[in-house]
Design goal:
Layout (H helix, E strand, L loop, with lengths): L3 E2 L2 E3 L2 E3 L4 E5 L6 E6 L3 H17 L4 H17 L1 H12 L3 H24 L4 E2 L10 E9 L3 E4 L7 H13 L3 E4 L6 H12 L7 E3 L4 H10 L5 E5 L2 H10 L4 E5 L5 E4 L5 H11 L13 E5 H16 L19 H16 L3 E4 L12 E4 L6 H4 L6 E7 L2 H9 L3 E2 L1 E5 L3 H10 L4 E4 L15 E2 L8 H7 L1 E9 L4
Parallel strand pairs: 1-5, 8-9, 8-11, 9-10, 11-12, 13-14, 13-19, 14-17, 16-17, 19-20
Antiparallel strand pairs: 2-3, 4-5, 6-7, 7-22, 15-16, 18-21
Helix pairs in contact: 1-7, 2-4, 2-5, 2-6, 3-4, 4-5, 5-15, 9-10
Keywords: Oxidoreductase
Pfam families: Aldedh
Protein name: Aldehyde dehydrogenase family protein
Length: 478
């Protein structure tokens, strides 16, 4: 894949800045491409263009739906090309990158459905004596310009989760993709424009958080800021935008509870996938394995064997299951957390060393103190911890003992256990007989506590990006 310079389109105009940022492969450091380093001037132009597009109001719902469906068709035709771009810039194994493209297709298609079906309500005014003789109804109208700030780990589909519903809702977008992996976002935006979206309906400002993100959040034009990323950045955005609607999806230390009646072999297979795909760089990557003491040794032994068989290597190699972390700094952070846990008495049963290309080999860690970073903080790396418990109440207490509450997994054959856990677990999603890493793109996705303050999924996001407008009609003379 030849490295290219990629201009950004701002308010329908291709833009190049004097300074360019390099996008390099996390695997070997090779140059994947260059993008303009945008700043306050580019943000100002993008927001002005988005405000003008909103004021025109010339993109009806049926046309927005057609654009989203057409973009999905174009993306399907270019699956391999886009998947290789994701793998190159984000270091995501090619098999996972193809999966991300497939999920992005779903996100666009479900967004098209919302554009076609979004509606309000007929109000039951006749139930009130004072409203008798009146007809009331509501409709959903665009909230306004949306500022979308997206992370590196799903550089295509998480862009679609913000841009797709915004288009469906009738909201122009100013997008700031992750500086580590902006090229997939640019590719998706290009497909939307090719599919018929007016070019000034979506502007992209590339650059880092201080240079492009901060002025975008502070700009008076966006009515909403939708952010996926770290807890500190999310809280800073909320504090900086008190007059805007803010949607935050932030992270987790996703636990999975394994009851004694679970199929251990199946559980291990799912944790092997859910804890280590994309080197654990997912908000719902399986991190804390909570297993009943009666099957703890059996599961731990099988998990160590399974994790030891994972293939670490070049993301563009078809055989690779685990690639590098996004940066050397992140790699060093995870190594530090592993060392700190070991110093506190934890045992690394497999992995944790240096693999091909400097990647961290997938690790299983036991006897981790409850206050260690590997338990309390989001690892975002190829590491799972295993902790035993005596009964379901203890398992639920261990799972809930976290600042996060995005997804929790539960493996059991017992319906009573499922119902009891569902009521007691303080998480946005409880995934039964699978790892917490599962997500369907149409489901309501979000969490509690520090995991965020929104629900994503096109049907839910589009409602976050619209406002209800109510009409009450009284006949003359009534």
């Amino acid at each position: 894949m030849a490295a290219e310079d990629h201009k950004v389109v701002i308010a329908g105009v291709p833009v190049a800045t004097e300074v360019w940022d390099e996008v390099r492969s996390p695997w070997d450091g090779s140059l994947v491409g260059r993008v303009p380093r945008c700043g306050p001037d580019e943000v100002e132009a993008a927001c002005a263009g988005a405000a003008a597009a909103l004021a025109r109001g010339d993109l009806p719902a049926w046309r927005r739906a057609e654009v989203l469906d057409a973009a999905a068709v174009l993306l399907a035709e270019r699956t391999e090309e886009v998947a290789r771009l994701v793998a190159a810039e984000a270091g995501k194994p090619l098999r996972d990158a193809r999966g991300e493209v497939a999920r992005c297709l779903d996100t666009l298609r479900y967004s098209a459905v919302e554009a076609r079906t979004l509606s309000g309500d007929l109000l039951p005014l006749e139930g009130s004596r004072s409203a008798a003789g009146r007809l009331g109804f509501s409709k959903r109208v665009p909230l306004g310009v949306v500022a979308a700030i997206t992370p590196f780990n799903f550089p295509l589909n998480l862009v679609a989760h913000k841009v797709g519903p915004a288009i469906a809702a009738g909201c122009p977008v100013v997008l700031k993709p992750a500086e580590q992996a902006p090229l997939s976002a640019l590719a998706l935006v290009g497909l939307l424009v090719e599919a018929g979206l007016p070019a000034d309906w979506i502007s992209v400002v590339t650059g880092d958080g201080p240079g492009a993100g901060v002025p975008l959040v502070a700009h008076p034009v966006p009515a909403m800021v939708s952010f996926t990323g770290s807890v500190p950045a999310g809280k800073a955005i909320a504090a900086a935008a008190p007059d805007k609607k803010v949607a935050l999806e932030l992270g987790s230390t996703s636990p999975v509870i394994v009851e004694p009646d679970a199929d251990v072999a199946f559980v291990v297979e799912r944790i092997r996938q859910g804890g280590f795909s994309y080197a654990g760089q997912s908000c719902i990557s399986t991190q804390r394995v909570l297993v009943h003491e009666s099957v703890r040794d059996e599961l731990t032994s099988a998990l160590v064997e399974a994790v030891g068989s994972l293939v670490v290597g070049d993301p563009l190699d078809e055989a690779t299951e685990v690639g590098p972390l996004i940066s050397a700094e992140e790699t060093e952070r995870v190594r530090t957390w592993l060392a700190e846990a070991a110093d506190a008495g934890a045992r690394v049963l497999v992995g944790g060393g240096e693999g091909p290309g400097g990647a961290i080999t997938p690790a299983v860690v036991v006897d981790v103190p409850p206050d260690a970073s590997l338990q309390r903080r989001e690892v975002f790396g190829p590491v799972v911890t295993v902790t035993g418990y005596a009964d379901l109440d203890e398992a639920i207490a261990l799972a809930n003992d976290s600042d996060f509450g995005l997804h929790c997994g539960l493996f059991t054959r017992d319906l009573d256990t499922v119902l009891a856990a569902f009521e007691a677990l303080d998480f946005g999603g409880v995934i039964v007989n699978d790892v917490p890493t599962f997500r369907a793109d149409q489901q309501p996705y979000g969490g509690t506590k520090d995991s965020g303050i929104t629900r994503e999924g096109p049907a839910y996001t589009v409602r976050e990006m619209t406002a209800l407008r109510t009409a009450v009609i009284r006949g003359v003379g009534t």
